[in-house]
Design a protein that fits this description.
single chain; TIM Barrel; alpha/beta; 41% helix; 8-stranded parallel β-barrel
Length: 253
């Protein structure tokens, strides 16, 4: 694993300074809330531009609240498409090379078969409009099995549609281990969100603080997905950075 493969989420208020100090990239999280794309855009843009100064490695996290690509209501699908197009424009503005987008599964609304089939329809159409050189990475949240998003991405079969494995979400919402998800997803994995928890809720705890065997998982991930990138999705990253640099071998050649 190389330090250039590591990113810090800007949910950590100190992410920009820490990233510059350690040679990490940044994952822009300010637009997870869509109103920052609209009435608060000018203020948000100034904040983001300041954080990105002198840091060329950038990933954008798209908005996710009330956005469901598999939605039953056609107007809801149009809203998702509209927001994701806004995210593409922002990625181009900030020279980000990946956009992370939640899959949008909600087990209290959608049957798994509907979610998979209708997501395939949405992403087949949407990916035709994604500029060359930009990857879309679908992230698991409430998906309980790896097969759901895997079936979507493999059926769409677009070279710019990849997967983002959020290991904390797996640990909190799936009975299947993060290691099993990793093995199943490896051919399509481009990005990881790494944080830990005790499996009772999505606490975004520090890397060594939880029931995910993080060192073993990251070594396996590096072996199976040697070119993938990783975001520490933490509100406080310092201790996890220290742990990461002490526990893992680095290859900076």
């Amino acid at each position: 694993m190389k330090q250039q493969q590591i990113y810090l989420s800007t949910i950590d208020g100190n992410a920009a300074d820490l990233a510059r100090r350690h040679g990490f990239g940044l994952e822009i999280a300010e637009y997870c809330t869509a109103y920052n794309m609209d009435e608060f855009f000018e203020e948000t843009d100034r904040i983001v531009q300041n954080k990105l100064e002198s840091n060329p490695n950038r990933i954008l996290h798209a908005p996710f609240n009330e956005l469901f690509p598999c939605a039953i209501d056609p107007l809801s699908r149009k809203l998702a498409k509209y927001r994701y197009h806004q995210a593409i424009k922002l990625a181009q503005r900030y020279k980000a090379h990946k956009i992370v987008i939640h899959g949008g599964y909600n087990p209290r609304i959608y049957y798994p078969i509907w979610y998979v089939e209708q997501s395939i329809v949405f992403w087949k159409e949407f990916m035709e409009e994604v500029p060359a050189g930009l990857e879309i990475c679908l992230e698991n949240v409430l998906e309980e099995e790896p097969s759901m998003l895997l079936d979507i991405v493999s059926a769409v079969a677009h070279p710019q549609l990849k997967l983002c494995l959020d290991v904390g979400h797996v640990n909190a919402y799936s009975a299947i281990s993060a290691e099993a998800w990793l093995t199943a997803w490896a051919p399509y994995l481009s990005h990881f969100h790494i944080h830990n928890n005790d499996s009772s809720w999505d606490s975004h705890s520090a890397l060594p603080c939880g029931t995910i065997p993080m060192k073993e998982f990251l070594l396996q991930a590096d072996s199976l997905c040697p070119t993938a990138t990783y975001t520490l999705e933490l509100t406080e990253s310092t201790d996890s950075i220290r742990w990461l640099m002490e526990e893992l071998p680095w290859n900076n050649k």
